[in-house]
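Example 4.3 (complexes with small molecules)
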Amino acid sequence: MYTNYLDLDSRNGQLVHVWPVPYEATASFAKGTLDGPRSLLQASYEIETWDQELGADLADLAHFETIPFFPAPVSGPQDCYRQLLAALQKRLDPGSDFLLTLGGEHSLALAPIEFYRRHYPELVVLQLDAHADLRQEFQGSRYSHACVMARAREQGAALAQVGIRSLCREESGTIDRDRGTGLLTLFAWETGSPVEAAARVREFIDQRPLYISFDADVLDPSIMPGTGTPEPGGLSYTWLNNFWSGLFSGVRLLGMDFCETSPLPGCGVVSESVAVKCINKILLTYLLHHRLESWI
Ligand SMILES: [Mn+2]
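Answer. The structure with manganese (II) ion bound is encoded below.
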C-alpha cells in the first residue's frame, strides 16, 4: 500500500502537504479517476527526484507529508465540497501551508481553491484543462466537475485558463462576455509559444497569489491516455515545462491540485507517470524561482 507521495528520507526545504482525494461521483464519461490518487502515489515512488534539465533535486527543496485518503461522502459533490473544505480548515493554515491535492475528479478542486481564497481574497486560479468547466449547471448539479470554475469565479476567484479546447455554447458566451474582467482564456490553438503564454498569464496574475488547478486532460491524450474525457489537440509535456519556466518569476504559489488521472489497465503506467512528472516539474521549477528570489 502506498501511503506517501515520493519516498524521501530527507526533510529539506518546503513542506508540501499532500491530500489524496479519491472522489468520483459526477464523472460523465469514462470512469476510473477514483483510483487516481493511489496510482499517483505508487508512480511517485518510481520517478527520479533529480532533474537534469533544471540541474536540481526536488528532494533538496521539498519534503512531503501525506494525509490519509479523504473519506469522500457518497451524498453528492456539494457535500463533498463542504466536507473537504471543513476538513482543510481544521487541519491546515491557508496563510502558511502548501497543499497538493491529488484527485479524483475535478469537482474537488473547489474546496482547496475556496480554502485559500477566504484567506487571500485576491487569489488567482490558473486552470490547466481541456474543458472550460464554466457551466452554470450540469446533469442536475451546480457542483459537477463541469461547473467547478464557474463556482470558483462566483465565489470571487480570478481565473486564468490555459489549453481549453472543449466547451459548450453557454461557456463560449461567458468567455466572450467576461474576457478581461477577472477571466483570461488561452485556447489550445492560441497558446502560441510557452514563453508568450507565460508572459500573458504572468501579466494577468500581477502581484496576486496563485493557485494551480491541473486537470490531466489538458495534456494531449497521446501522452495522457488515462483520463475520463480525453480531447485531441492538447499540450505537450515539453511545452508545459517551458511554460512553467517563464511563469514563476515574482509569483507566490500557495498550492495546487492534480485531478482526473484514471489509470488504464491496458496502458501500463503511462498516465500516472506523466502526472507525477508534471507535478514534480511544477514544484521544482517554482521552488527554484522562489529560493532565488528569497536570496535577493
Ligand atoms: Mn477537463
